[in-house]
């Protein structure tokens, strides 16, 4: 049984359409895949319509949130949310708010770059992102690759788009406590994504994870390409101590990253635990 619970499509910053994503998941030999685009459920319908026979689809999203970091400051955390009701009013309102904010933010980054003579145009960029999809920095990275300024998306991040660079504009993130409440209220289950991916930037302490667990966090993503062995061991021990679900996933983004579908996987009993707790929407497909 091969299960990958964290992937992106063109509904956010992946390069596979939702239909291609499920086709690739089946071709990669997965038994279950979750579609978890940033801050949107707009890929769910197309993924469902194109679902190959035998593949189970877990509908989800990856929410960009801000959390106390446990060191006196704040940092970004990503919350994977599974099987919640996409029509719950708080979910709908939050998706609309973050989408509008992210379009403005993409334009702000593009304008700063254009002012420095880089060949990116805010209007062109936004025209290339469907109105119900979530724009992100990888969209600008792809534009820089197309323009021949850099040769890879990774290089675009290293040179221009990283959090410490002069073009960085943060997106307006929702307090993590509020997202936990919204998803629980919509019948979903939450899993903290890549919590100890230290090279991405600031991360939360174990004490913060304990507080989030007390607020209803359901699980921890332990096996993730950005986690080294030590991060995985610490997270697994923490999940054990707190009675949390553990998952493993690729965080596949198509050709934006060199990660393969199913590169990291989740144990079947963990997916069962997620499905048992969720009351929003069910897992579809499979035999
Ligand atoms: P944003 O949501 O706009 O802040 O952009 C974050 C997205 O960029 C996440 O999906 C990351 O996976 C992706 N990302 C961050 N660093 C890199 C990198 N070095 N190469 C490719 N994608 C990256
Ligand atoms: Zn992404
Ligand atoms: Fe993430
Ligand atoms: Fe992700």
Outline of the structure:
With 287 residues, the protein is an alpha/beta fold.
What does this molecule look like?
This protein has helices spanning 18-27, 44-49, 89-115, 122-127, 137-146, 153-161, 176-185, 206-214, 229-242, 268-277, and strands spanning 3-4, 32-38, 56-68, 74-82, 174-175, 189-192, 219-223, 245-248, 284-285. The chain is of the alpha/beta class. It has two domains: 3-96 and 171-285, TIM Barrel (Alpha-Beta Barrel); 102-161, DNA polymerase, domain 1 (Orthogonal Bundle), CATH 1.10.150.650. Helix 5 packs across helix 6 (153-161). It is globular and about 55 Å long. It starts with a strand and ends with a strand. The mean pLDDT is 96.
């Amino acid at each position: 049984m091969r299960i990958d619970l964290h992937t992106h499509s063109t509904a956010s910053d992946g390069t596979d359409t939702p239909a291609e994503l499920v086709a690739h998941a089946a071709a990669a030999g997965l038994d279950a895949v979750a579609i978890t685009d940033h801050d949107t459920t707009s890929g769910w319908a197309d993924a469902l319509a194109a679902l190959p026979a035998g593949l189970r689809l877990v509908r989800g999203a990856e929410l960009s949130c801000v959390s106390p970091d446990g060191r006196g400051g704040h940092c970004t955390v990503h919350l994977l949310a599974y099987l919640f009701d996409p029509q719950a009013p708080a979910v709908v309102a939050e998706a609309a708010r973050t989408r509008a904010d992210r379009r403005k933010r993409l334009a702000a980054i593009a304008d700063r770059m254009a002012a420095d003579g880089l060949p990116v145009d805010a209007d062109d960029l936004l025209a290339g992102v469907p109105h119900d999809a979530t724009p992100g920095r990888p969209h600008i990275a792809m534009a820089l690759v197309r323009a021949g300024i850099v040769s890879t998306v990774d290089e675009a991040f290293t040179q221009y788009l990283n959090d410490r660079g002069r073009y960085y504009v943060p997106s307006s993130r929702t307090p993590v406590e509020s997202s936990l409440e919204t998803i629980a209220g919509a019948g979903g289950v939450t899993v903290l994504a890549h919590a100890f991916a230290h090279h991405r930037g600031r991360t939360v302490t174990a004490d913060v994870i304990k507080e989030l667990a007390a607020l209803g966090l359901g699980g921890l993503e332990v096996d993730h390409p950005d986690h080294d062995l030590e991060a995985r061991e610490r997270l697994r021990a923490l999940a054990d101590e707190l009675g949390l679900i553990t998952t493993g996933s690729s965080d596949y983004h198509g050709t934006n990253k060199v990660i393969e579908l199913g590169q990291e996987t989740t144990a079947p009993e963990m997916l069962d635990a997620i499905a048992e707790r969720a009351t929003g929407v069910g897992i579809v497909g499979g035999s």
